[in-house]
Structure formats: structure tokens, C-alpha cells
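Case study.
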Amino acid sequence: MASKRKVRNLLALAVMSYLTHRPMHPYELSRTLRTNGDDRSIKFNHGSLYMVVGQLERAGFVAAQETSREGQRPERTVYALTDDGRREHAEWMRELVSEPQHEYPGFVAALSLIGALAPADVVELLQTRLARLQGQRAEIRALVDETVGNGVHPLFLVEEEYRIAQIDGEIGFVGDFLERIADPNADWRRTWDAMRAQTGEDPSQ
Amino acid sequence: MASKRKVRNLLALAVMSYLTHRPMHPYELSRTLRTNGDDRSIKFNHGSLYMVVGQLERAGFVAAQETSREGQRPERTVYALTDDGRREHAEWMRELVSEPQHEYPGFVAALSLIGALAPADVVELLQTRLARLQGQRAEIRALVDETVGNGVHPLFLVEEEYRIAQIDGEIGFVGDFLERIADPNADWRRTWDAMRAQTGEDPSQ
DNA sequence: GGGGTCATGTAATAGGTTACATGATTCT
DNA sequence: AGAATCATGTAACCTATTACATGACCCC
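After joint prediction, the assembly is written out as follows.
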């Protein structure tokens, strides 16, 4: 099922999404994505956009429609979604919503190698993380509240609610982990120290 | 702070981590990563490993130490961590543990564009997701329990506990979201339908 | 009317994945 | 002894990011 999509970059999904409504030229897409704040959810930079549009064109999901000129600005190529593109877009969306994907966040990588650090250090680092997580949570909450205050329905910010749920899960995990290793006599802490003694690590780093 | 690391690929972090203990040649690294199950936490494929080792060498974090030959097998270059490499490794680990990074999971992208799908459909898709999340959770739990049953201390699987915490957060979120849109007369559901009527979407897809 | 910034895109470079290649070992 | 798989690496090909380029508009 995890089909071999011809274009995998999620920016392409956003492009197809906007082209569902009406044809646009790349720069307009770029603007729209930025002002809609989609760049909080999808990695985006100016250069990649043109690349992605090119890929979509080669894949037959969008087609150049006309090249218009307005005032004395350079010519712009307007792209429209093809029928194939419409199908691809819907299918991809459905897949993303229904099938959890295996991903590789940096924190997971670090956790899997955490034995390399001294537990006393890790306690400090995790406390820092905890504070920052709480800060991020507050920022997101503020952003959502402000936007909703301006009359936007929370449905349009549901991805931010998801982020908050993830942050809360992480805060819980970090708290638990800290409890297990903060006390120098705790089981986990002793195991950790013992392992590092074995492999001959410098206990101070 | 969020320094401009010369090598950003997380696979490089794992490589440096293993080279902390002793010098190895790339193929041995490859084997070790696989058998230790690090490929669950760090994206890994055979080809990238050689690339990453090359990058690390150019950056001065590892150095070719000797080329050994065993039996009639091809020659292998053994790499050792340099002092710079040791510093970089420790610093990077500390950064990853203490600073939450902004990342771009596929589900967030889909959520931010979710308005393109019909709410009735989304209900179904989310139910499917929920079931799969529960399946994944059970798999991870089983893996952890089995490994711990074999005498491995749970400290060495802490990244899997983190995954479970994230999945639990996601399950909670999806459940809430479903409640908000499952009932055709719920506030969210009506907003959603109204928006789609405005932009003239086909209600059946 | 000159200095910023907006609008619009292309080109150069670096990063990552897949495919290919080849001798050694093991299995039947 | 031929087939399968392990061991080991290189090369070709995409993908993605950064840097460069250039005319228009706007402010003082």
C-alpha cells in the first residue's frame, strides 16, 4: 500500500491542494503558502517550490496553462491541476491520514544512543528540554488563541492541536525518564553508571 | 545554539557513537547498526553509510587508520574518531537532548490541508488510523517486553518508550478530533461542510 | 534618483538513494 | 559443482538547498 509515489516531497501535496481551487503561477503559490502559515507544517523554501512544480509537471499532475504578463513584470507560467493530479492528491491525502508512517525524529536518534552521555549530565539536559517544551507549548497555544480570537474557526488550526498533543506526550515521557535517573541510587541510574564503567568512559563527560 | 553542523545526517551521529568505543571499517559499522536495531531509530541504508563516512572524513571528525586484509576478502579501510570528532559527537548529542527541534511529520502536513477531504471520509480514515496506531503500539510493547525478558535492561530501549508515549498522544488527539466531527450536527462538522460548499467541492469526495 | 525590498526565476552545488559489480563463503 | 547469500564497495542518478541574477516598485 505504501505506494511508490512519483513525487514524494510533501510540498508537492500542498501545491496540488492549492491548485485544486484554481490555477496559479509558482510565485503566487509561494506567497499563498507563506501567508497561510503552511510553512509551519511543511518544509518550504523558495527554491524547492520551482523544483517541485517541475517534478509535478514531468509526472503529469500539473500542466502549464498559459503564460501571462502583468504590468512590466517578467512573464509567469500558470499551472493547472490535471485529472491525474486530482486523483493523486486525493489518494495521497487519504493515505497520509489513514496510515501512520515510520519517521525518524532527532530526539529518537539521540535516545537510542543516550548511553554515550553521563547520566548526571542527561538529567540537566532533560530539564532544559522540559523547560523549552513548555515554552513551545505556550507559544503554540498563544498563536492558536489569538487566531481563533480573530474569528478563525479552530478547525483550520487542528494541526497545531496535534502538535500540542505530541508535546504533551513528550513532556510526560521526559518527566518519567527524569524520575528514573535523577536519584543516583535508582535502578536505572545504577545500571547506566555500571555500563559506562565497563566501557571505560570518563564519568565527567 | 542551533549551530551549522558540517555534517547533519543523523547516521553520522551513530557512526561517531560507535567509533567512540573502537575503530571500525564501514562494513562493520553497517553490520553493527543493523544487529543493534539502530535502524529503527535512524534512517539507514547501505549506500548512505559510505557517503556519511566520507563526509565525516572530509570534516576531520574521523580519520582512516589502516587498511587491513583478512583472508581473501577485499581490503577494508578502518576509521578512528579524531579528537574533533569526539567533541562534535558530545556536543551534538547534548544539543539533540536539550533542544527540541521543529520537524515536519507527514500527518501534520495532511492535517494542515485536511479541508480538502470530505469530513465523512475523514471520519472513516481516522478510524482506520486509530486501529493501526493501536496495532503499532502493541507491536512495540511486545518487542520491548520480549527484549527485556531476554535480560536486557529497559534503559537500552528507552527510545521505544518514547515512541509509545508519542503514539499515545496521537491516539488521544485522533480520538478527540473524531468526537468533534463524527456527529453531522457538531459545530466543527457544520463549519467544515459549509466551507466546502463555498469552495464548491464535490461533497462525495 | 539612489537604496531598499518585492517579484520572479535559473544555475551551481551538495546531499541521499538505487543500481550495479565482484570475489568469497556456504548450502544442497 | 551450481545456487544462494554474504561481504564490500563504487557509480549513476535523483532531490534538495544555496547562491546568483535582474527588472520593477516604493520611499525619502
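Observations recorded in class. Chain B touches chain A through 68 residues (CB under 8 Å). Residues 25-27, 30-31, 46-47, 50, 73-76 of chain B lie near DNA strand D (CB under 10 Å from a C1'). We will return to this complex in the next lecture.
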